[in-house]
Amino acid sequence: MGVGSASELAPVNANRLCLDFANLPYTSGDPLAHQTSWLELVEFLAEKRVISGSRSEELRELTETDPKAAGTLIRQAERLGNALRLVLGAMMAGQNLEPEHLSPINAILAITEGYDELQQDDAGGWKLGFRARHEGLEWLLAAIARSGAELIAEGAKSGLQQCSNPRCQLLFYDDSKTHRRRWCSMALCGNRSKVAAFARRHGGEKARAHHA
Ligand SMILES: [Zn+2]
Predict the structure, then answer these.
(1) Measured in angstroms, how far is the CA atom of residue 23 from the centroid of ligand 1?
(2) Does residue 210 carry a pLDDT above 50?
(3) What is the reported pLDDT for 111?
(4) How far apart are CA 87 and CA 37, in angstroms?
(5) For the residues of the chain, what is the DSSP string, one character each?
(6) Smallest Cα–Cα separation from 187: which of 13, 3, 1, 7?
(7) pLDDT value of position 59
(8) For residue 163, what pLDDT is reported?
(9) Which has the closest alpha carbon to 188: 168, 174, 207, 204?
(10) How far is the CA of 103 from the centre of ligand 1 (A)?
């Protein structure tokens, strides 16, 4: 069964798109126990503003209009999620990264080739835009793969962390100045731990209010 907080769509801000993706219930934990559902994937992409609202409306229909394409992308999303968790876990454990574990990430990066070009903007001026060489559905995963690749390239000394609650597997990136963030979210694991610590202390001595 799920592990409580981690199995719900928790209000956890992991600070990196790839980590929010790796924390998704269906990509975290046992990869065989969770099937990525198309609607959950589309919802995630919309929530993270990888796609617009109108694009997400279109994509919701895809399991009916083009089930094969939707199925292919789901499998790619799962492969990407599994690769991210494996590689990030190895990084946190101080292990060397296996090239074959990185290949699902590189596979998505490979489709994002394209070129910059000058494009006319709405006001009649010119802007520098990006033209993709292939317009495939894999583009939906490009920003996630890019975010993962950047974090991996940063290396083990980056702010990559796992929640201090041993029963919580969620990953986050510690953006705080002091680098002392310990919990995936204060509301989920931080407070729970504080309450437990308070209960332990409270057994011995009365907690006194400080008027500092
Ligand atoms: Zn947690």
Answers:
(1) 10
(2) no
(3) 87
(4) 23
(5) ---GGGGS------SSHHHHHHTSTTTSS-TTT-PPPHHHHHHHHHHTTSS-HHHHHHHHTHHHH-HHHHHHHHHHHHHHHHHHHHHHHHHHTTPPPPHHHHHHHHHHHHHT-EEEEEEE-TTS-EEEEEEES---TTHHHHHHHHHHHHHHHH-TTSSEEE-SSTT---EEE--STT-----S-IIIIIHHHHHHHHHHHHHHSPPPPP--
(6) 13
(7) 94
(8) 92
(9) 168
(10) 29
Give 168 Cα–ligand 1 centroid separation in angstroms. Answer: 5
Distance (Å) from CA 43 to ligand 1 centroid:
22
CA dist 150 → 99, 137, 190 (Å): 16, 22, 28
Q: Which residues pair with 137 in a beta bridge?
A: none
Cβ proximity of 160 and 88 under 8 Å: yes
- Residue 9 makes CB contacts below 8 A (sequence gap 6+) with 24, 25
Q: Is the pLDDT of residue 34 over 70?
A: no
Mean pLDDT value across the chain: 82
How big is the chain, counted in residues?
212
- 54 pLDDT more than 60: yes
Rounded to whole angstroms, the Cα distance separating 43 from 53 reads 10
Distance (angstroms) between ligand 1 centre and the Cα of 190 equals 7
For range 165-171, the mean pLDDT: 87
Span 65-87, pLDDT tens digits: 999 999 899 989 989 998 999 99
